[in-house]
UniProtKB/TrEMBL annotation:
GO molecular function, one term: peptidase activity
Record-annotated membrane-spanning stretches: 6-23, 30-49, 55-76
Protein name: Membrane protein implicated in regulation of membrane protease activity
Species of the source: Halomicrobium zhouii
Any Gene Ontology CC annotation: plasma membrane
Length: 201
């Protein structure tokens, strides 16, 4: 009777692990993978262990499960399945403004698709152009994030690095707060001093 009970628990653990692995496939990023592998391995080891081990069976099971869980967690982080630190985090749609990307499906004023450089886990976005058509492979910049579902883009001329630099500088100043405005006021004071010294001479 105890052997039947241990086999049913092992089968339950195996089944629970399999369900969590399937759930991870439907909800990627939920981090059910590691727990699923741990439960699946616990169930599998429990089913394969002979019944006459007595007190050693739970110890062997614990060591195997801990080792496989640690190995799975290490591999999960090492393989970088979801694209790096913070890539799976959701940011507000306003952060898409000024982002650069490439057209993957011809963009018109009503439809199209782009791949953004810093688009996160899924960098592909439905897109509309400000005016006209933008061909596949063209470089674009997001001018209106539109809530994040459909972005409005405009073509960026090849070699137009000024817009790209300005957009990145604007993003950096937005993240730094009012650091840029303090620097501007200090620069104005320098200009006023220069003007006064020119008037004196």
């Amino acid at each position: 009777m105890p052997e039947l009970f241990s086999e049913s628990i092992s089968f339950f653990l195996f089944l629970a692990g399999a369900i969590l692995l399937v759930a991870e496939a439907f909800a990627p990023g939920a981090h059910l993978f590691v727990l699923g592998v741990a439960l699946l391995s616990a169930g599998l080891v429990g089913l394969l262990l002979p019944g006459g081990l007595g007190i050693f069976a739970p110890i062997i099971l614990a060591v195997v499960v801990l080792a496989l869980t640690g190995l799975t967690l290490w591999g999960y982080r090492r393989l970088d399945i979801y694209g790096g630190e913070g890539a799976a985090e959701t940011s507000h749609s306003g952060s898409l403004r000024g982002q650069f990307g490439t057209v993957t499906e011809r963009v018109t004023t009503t439809e199209g698709e782009v791949k953004l450089e810093d688009g996160g886990f899924n960098p592909y976005y439905r897109a509309r152009s400000v005016e006209g058509e933008i061909e596949v492979g063209s470089e674009v910049m997001v001018v209106d994030p539109g809530g994040g579902n459909v972005v409005t883009v405009e073509s960026v001329a090849a070699g137009d690095d000024i817009d790209r630099a300005l957009a990145r500088e604007r993003d950096a100043s937005d993240s730094d707060g009012n650091v840029a405005s303090e620097g501007d006021s200090a620069g104005d004071g320098t200009r006023e001093t220069d003007v006064e010294s020119d008037r004196a001479s």
